[in-house]
Design brief:
Blueprint (H helix, E strand, L loop, with lengths): L43 H20 L18 H4 L6 H24 L2 H33 L6 H30 L5 H5 L1 H13 L3 H33 L1
């Protein structure tokens, strides 16, 4: 073969050689695509469309079978628990806590009236309501400074007072009810058992009502406990002094 004769290209890795006078090497035509006569696969798009049509036909046939519609929308099916799962107003749980607290105070007053004197139970119930109001005002005053000092947001003033009052009513009601039951059933020393659970009860109620973080809830609980013990100690001192003067 002469030096200037063009050489065919075998593949991309062996481009071949060509002479100085040739403009470009001779390219070999691409081999034809061989299609096997046993290959009956369809393109993916056509196959997907066919499957989709088959699925739609199966669903339509299932809908019309004996008048039953297994694919019927569940909008017509009402969930019996749906009203309880709906978002509640901000005052809803406050009302629930107040009701539970009043029931607890009522049970404690009833137990005291049955075991001591009915007038003692009635007077105790009224005094408990007055104490709830006084504690709410005092704790609101303390939590105002706690919120400023630690940057805790308790929400608008009106909502915060209602929520705090509900927490105080609930905690006092449950504590007095359990304390009275323990005193009647097991003696005065057993009253310290429900008192030891008060911090945990306050933490659960406060964190739920005001939606506080763990740190904010702990600080709030400590402030409420401090305020409660100060007010309780002051009330006990006044009663003791009154009893001494009366004696």
């Amino acid at each position: 073969m002469a030096q200037n004769d063009p050489q065919p290209i075998d593949d991309d890795l062996n481009p071949g050689t060509y002479g100085f006078g040739d403009a470009k090497p001779v390219k070999r035509a691409a081999p034809p695509i061989r299609i096997s006569k046993y290959d009956h696969s369809e393109p993916e798009e056509k196959e997907s469309a066919r499957r989709r049509r088959q699925r739609e036909e199966d669903e339509e046939e299932a809908r019309t079978d004996n008048g039953n519609d297994p694919f019927k929308s569940r909008e017509d099916i009402k969930d019996p628990f749906e009203p309880f799962l709906q978002p509640k107003q901000w005052w809803f749980w406050s009302v629930v806590l107040v009701i539970c607290g009043l029931l607890g105070l009522g049970v404690a007053a009833t137990i005291a009236g049955l075991n001591v004197d009915p007038r003692v139970g009635a007077v105790g119930f009224v005094i408990s309501l007055i104490v709830v109001i006084i504690e709410t005002i005092g704790m609101a005053f303390v939590l105002t400074f706690v919120g400023i000092a630690f940057g805790i947001d308790y929400g608008p003033v009106k909502e915060a007072l209602v929520k705090l009052g509900a927490c105080v009513a609930f905690i006092n009601g449950i504590t007095l009810m359990c304390g009275t039951m323990f005193v009647v059933g097991f003696g005065p020393i057993a009253a310290f058992m429900p008192l030891s659970c008060i911090p945990f009860l306050i933490y659960a109620v406060i964190s739920q009502q005001f939606e506080l973080s763990m740190f904010e809830s702990i600080v709030t609980v400590l402030a409420i406990e401090f305020c409660a013990w100060v007010m309780g100690t002051g009330l006990a001192f006044v009663l003791l002094r009154h009893m001494i003067n009366k004696a």
